[in-house]
């Protein structure tokens, strides 16, 4: 057996050697083919052979694509350890890969390889010294941060550093920022330039300017990121005051404070990298996420560990400036502005419609008016004052179309239409009017129409790019709240968290409005898939990340005012909901707002807000409020929900005009009283609110059973369940008084009647049980008062007493 094993090992080794030899031969043969290709295409004016520009571009793009895939496939270094440790290991492995590439670049240059300059030709070899110095300076800056990250990684294996949260935060920040710096430096690798033709010299100059702008942007981003990394590392060692002392107060009294804070600057740099020209590289986009996670690691290391109400918000790195940068990259401009309140809700919706389709309607009116007047455009513009607006609009369109490519027209055909017949000559008639051919108006209308179509196509393309950038930047917000939810403490202050709700809700509603709108007959839905994707990501961000964040109770000084404003704004947004999904997002936001109250009992001040909401939901036919607003509140905050909803729900069960809404009200009533039998599990303010509403609840149940609207089995179950829980609550807390006793007597008769007449066996069983419970409770109450037993008691009928008297005689 040992001989067989040794032989198998030798065979495997031989196979490995054969495969290695074959791979080496393939590499050598490929190199020889490249050498022959270079000799064949050698440029006579150059001493060395140059690979053609299209081939270089293809090879470069393929290399960056493979490198991005390699980086994305890097794991966290094993399944053990926490998620943060695995992420740190992944960022370190990524940095090692990118460092090998950048160091290989330096090795090639040291061994005689010459990098392609901005121009590979003698006529344009003049490269300014400033650009060359900037390139070398960027390399030095990247190398400096790489050395810091590698040095921290060497000491990460020490036992003392493994348990040190601040050291781990420094390691993650340094490795993440170094990885992004390495990715940016790789974009400075150029493929040279293509020799311009005489016909393409203008485009060549434009491409040259674009490349210069990209290089300048990379150099600026590199310099800024190095300063940000140093500031973040210094914050971990010296505290937040080390940076605040240089830039002024952290309270935001100066406008320059936002630029001086490193995390806000990092957020701005990440947004620029994801939405600018640098976002074209997949590797850069991936490294932006890694660098942003490193900055959040520093923010979590310096954030207060406790959720005490007295903690100052200035101790957080994630402040309102950071949130403003992130929200402005995800939300549209209208959503970030302060809109009108509830009274302007409907008007705002109409204005949104005009804002989306207003320009298209104006364009359509121009051509419809021209067709109606047989294309006599000059006469209509002379007679109507709207001609000034049309001419002004044409001037604006002309400015917008300066950078866009015009539609190709047939010049001969237009010339024939415009100059056909002798009437096209510029001459004046007897009336002093310009005479021209009627076909010229049609040609002019067609020309304007084609230019307008080109402008709309450009608008659609810009909108597509904007949606793509917003979707990319949304990853930064998702990473922020995902990181915050994974921590024991709090990374985002509550007031900063609340300020993010309304812009995100507004943006989601605007997207949903365009998605749900009927498609145009001619062009259908424009960018429907992109808008749906962004809307779904916003929904997931609100429901699964932001609203599940651990919200800390705010102080009583300004916390209540912030909560009041947020509550009013979100309820106003809920009244403008276009679907149940949007109302669910508003409901989750309202629950988060209530969690931010200094004390749970302070929620009682919102009783009028919820009373108005329940009344609107149960009475108005055109309301957009959904029952999920109340279900979520009862599920996630039971005590607060019961205290706020018990009274308005009882009123809605009596006064709602629709049977379905009454049934829903009784279902909610059943949820309110279901778990309230044990007073120890509920707050005192909740128990008091339930006690004060028992009379209204019983009255609503009595009216429902008498009216007969809810006697069907499907509706009657909700009423009977609510009755069961309300009666149980009354019995356990001893609330049966004279006023309730009369209602209970009436209910007992209704239960008995339903137990005999209902066609449903389940309803009969429930009614029989309720009749027994109510009867026994009435009997106990009568015994306590000292009155004779009621004739309504089914256990002591009058006939039994007569039988006993006859036996004694």
From TrEMBL:
Keyword annotations of the record: Nucleus
Region of interest called Disordered, as start-end residue ranges on this chain: 330-412, 778-809
Primary localization: nucleus
InterPro entries, per database record: DNA_pol_V/MYBBP1A
Biased composition, class Basic residues, residue ranges: 799-809
GO biological process: regulation of DNA-templated transcription
Comp. bias regions, Basic and acidic residues: 385-401, 778-787
GO cellular component: nucleolus
Entry superkingdom: Eukaryota
Protein location: Nucleus
GO molecular function: DNA binding
Comp. bias regions, Acidic residues: 339-364, 375-384
PANTHER family: MYB-BINDING PROTEIN 1A, MYB-BINDING PROTEIN 1A FAMILY MEMBER
The protein's name: Uncharacterized protein
Organism: Ditylum brightwellii
